[in-house]
Amino acid sequence: MNSLEEEFARIKLQEWYHLYSEDIYRFILMMIGDNEQAKDLTHDTFIKAYNSINFFKGEASDKNWLFYIARNIVVDYMKKRKPILFMVDCFSAIISNDHVPEDIAILGEREEQLYRSLRKLKRSYREVIILRKIKELSIQEAAEILNWSEGKVKITLYRALLALKNQMEKEGFEYETI
Amino acid sequence: MKQYNDKSEYDEMFKRYESIGFSDKNKVYAKVIKTLDESKKNQKVTNVIKPVFSTVIATIIFLFGGYFLINNIILDDKFNQNYVQGDYTSPVDYQALEQELTDKFGFPFLVPIHETLRIGFVLVHNSVAIDGGITSKPKGAIIAYGLEENLKQDRSGVFYQSLTEMGDILTSTYLEEEDAVVIVSTLDYTGIVFGGEMEIGGESIRYRYVDMGTHQEVNFKVQTNDIDYVFIHKLVDGNTIEDTVTFIEAFLKKVES
Known about the structure:
Mean pLDDT of chain B: 76
Low-confidence stretches of chain A: none
Strand content of chain A: under 5%
Largest sheet of chain A: none
Mean pLDDT of chain A: 83
Strand content of chain B: 15-25%
Number of helices of chain A: 9
Helix content of chain A: over 70%
Structural class of chain A: mainly alpha
Order of helices and strands of chain A: HHHHHHHHH
Oligomer: heterodimer
Number of strands of chain A: 0
Strand order of the largest sheet of chain B: 3-1-2-4-8-7-6-5
Low-confidence stretches of chain B: 73-88
Radius of gyration of chain A: 17 Å
Helix content of chain B: 25-40%
Distance between the termini of chain A: 56 Å
Structural class of chain B: alpha+beta
Largest interface: A-B, 63 and 52 residues
Shape of chain A: globular
Shape of chain B: extended
Number of strands of chain B: 8
Distance between the termini of chain B: 56 Å
């Protein structure tokens, strides 16, 4: 990068960070359940975005591109931390013992329980629920980030929500409409 | 036509997660900028040092490589110096293990026998139903091999506990995650591209390389009539591509017989 490109990249980075860092942080936190690690991976996401800025052709939105990078960083992190656990997590549910981050626990008992159940779903189910239902991205946006077809997003989300409901019921949580 | 609808009773709860704050937003941003500045500084230094460093490294490789070649390969003809040599007997009775796996899966299950590494754990992972529940139907097995010295009896470890929650563990010992050198998996790898092709034991075997950050892995997919076996080899000290090929060749002979 020459100095002009570098200056442009820094301005872009600042803008992206200002606009999307909270979204990216929450996405990572929901995926890995660790506040401190989520901060580190958010940092890594923006460093990677800066270093890859020349490859960003504007085909996806800025936000989607950042989510795409963040998702890859999370997957790499999981893979490097525990390759065997990651391998099984890709194919099925892991019964997770991970603690619930304080930020989530303070939202309330129901949110904590929902999060615990979410953590027990396999990774693809967790990802699609977080992107579609929590981040409220469109089907097309979720498909871009996950590198899936829109049809796959729909069917996986359907199955994921069913699995989540069953997991909640299995743990004795009955949903009450307020 | 039926309208697509993915509304859920948890939608309101989902939205509340978006109220989680990013308390250290400014601190993390400062760290991002610091990292970029440092990397720029390092890049400048690297540009100056690189040619000198390359020459030094090339000289060291030449000297030590020559020494290693003469001492360890030409004179001693020993290949795997890092492995404990000897007559290995698996901690599990292979036949009994194969029978147990065959009974669980309902078709002949062959356990690859490694000449130098011992089986650290065998995990049978059960299928997950569409509703998220764990069924009793086995989905696949993971067999991890490692050095004898790394086998453990103490089962209080976090890793071991995580494994017990994923399925049935069939061995009497176990390996920590990082100590597993070779893993054979029969999980479903549909959709994962094994782009390369190599001739092993007279058969064409598909393979792929995977960058794990700290090391490289090579995965080979061996297809049999009943099941696909994926051989995952960490390319770390003492475990080379030749070891992988030997292991797979032995397994192919076992399949044939």
